[in-house]
Amino acid sequence: MSPAIQTDVDLAPLTTLGVPARAAHYCAAGSEDEIRAALDWAHSRDLPVLVLGGGSNMVFVDDYAGLVLQPLLRGRALVGESDSHYLVRVGAGERWHDAVEWTLAQGWPGLENLALIPGNVGAAPIQNIGAYGLELTDRFHSLEALNRRTGERVTLDRAACRFGYRDSVFKHPDGRDLIVLSVCFALPKVWLPMTGYRDITEELAARHIDTPAPRDIFDAVIAVRQRKLPDPAVVGNVGSFFKNPVVDAATHAQLQAGHPKLVSHPQTDGRFKLAAGWLIDQAGWKGKALGAARVHPAQALVLTNPGGARGADIMALAQAIRRDVQAQFGVALEPEPIVVGALDEQ
User: Pathway involvement (predicted)?
Assistant: First the structure.
């Protein structure tokens, strides 16, 4: 099979940040065979390959001199069930939010707290996406992936994926050759609402909902996200730019003593997750700009491209924020997105 390879492709429309960048070569692969053919094509020319999902977690600082490969495999199906769970498989190229809405429509709740997260399904396990008390690992069963180096098709369960906070095996050397083809979710037959986050509780109360159904949680999450986060179709962004730092109990107590209004969440292991947005706000960056890049005025965790920003502008703003938060709180912020180019600040 001859892959459909395009040359000198504008990447800005393929990413939610929308900064200018070009790919020397690009391929949108709609099947596993097309992925394999594109990899063979690049290998025969000794070209590097960058896998691009929905483009919602990537900052291009430079053009890309190799092949940008975008897997767009489709498909959504119930593939099995147990006494406790429905097993639902979704293609890597499906839009994440559409998949969440589809599972609810089928009567298989469990993903509603992750509504409206941008990007494609294939990228979700790589980042172990999470929001409002739920992480992908909590609903994960297994995935199918292609090893680009060996050509082997492999199945990974939860243990093999080594999920952590915004982390997985795919971000480490032994997993970086894997291209996700599909993801299988285990959705609970006995559903319980997850309303532990204040934003969701307040939204449900405003709607006078005491006993929420799955769709109520879904709608509440969408309302909160739309109120607090900019629409990438209107203002370029990659969502939360920094991870919420996790600190030990002693560090948390020290920070709280100096900052009584510190926003944090206790973790099951005794540590505390700090609200990175609060730290950035306290450091004076909320709503502020540096050059053409800007911190969103409603959510300090989001760095935006209001128009005209380049990847280097976004990273310069990120570095200035990290420096000030470190100086004021002694806490190191870690960027969430993948940075492509010479100015990688991770």
Answer: Cell wall biogenesis; peptidoglycan biosynthesis
